[in-house]
């Protein structure tokens, strides 16, 4: 695999435990920097944002400033939790916004919630992304024959604990699923929190099949059908819907990290992506964001306000005959 450009600084981070929704909670004995999250706007409304800050109180981007690796020697990756298990709000890193806060996706002017396609309830894993990765929409994958979806690579964390939105955890990669979403490659990494009580028992995708029977089949079913309630067709998958193993998954993640390196070093066009960051870009890079500039950008958003009610329709089941 080719080496990516090296025009940025490597930064090690750790997230401090805090109650939801005020901040995410994670701690590592090997790293001495701490980060928290800050809410802006009204929860469950289009104004809601979740910004990330470092231990010095400086705002950062979860897309660009959080290191991909928690332990590179062991291929342990950081994961930014966007959607806790069992919840429905489609929260995501806002790749086109300054500092890339987590916000809820909006479709046709309405907040987006994934439907409960029977028998599933909300997301069936802790769902999020690996920072400093990017699925390049100009790169056609040789295995899927489709280009990337222009987002960080997605992760499904299968541990026993329901995580907190904005939490950053360290995960062990177990495998990967190649979903084709409306003609785009959309990899889904399967991983487990290294602090999960059962983490030592899971070392590859075959362990998930053996110890959590039905979970992988349910995962394919979930991703195949979750857009059907919105009037869209079922999603497709490469490799005959088979999960690839840990080694394959790790190579895919590393390739998306190289695509991100090219992006942050301006070797690839960013398009509408916002690449401003406070810890990575150096020198006179246009992506280098000062602490004052970051603070001003956050200040332009609404202060944290009253939580809005979640529509009762979010709890309904959606049924349809499988093809």
TrEMBL record:
Provenance organism: Characodon lateralis
InterPro entries, sorted: Pyrophosphatase, Pyrophosphatase_sf
Alphabetical UniProt keywords: Hydrolase, Magnesium, Metal-binding
Pfam families: Pyrophosphatase
Catalytic class of the enzyme: hydrolase
Cofactors that this protein relies on: Mg(2+)
PROSITE patterns for this protein: PPASE
Gene (name only): PPA1_1
Family: Belongs to the PPase family.
EC number: 3.6.1.1
Stated name of the protein: inorganic diphosphatase
Gene3D superfamilies, A to Z: Inorganic pyrophosphatase (3.90.80.10)
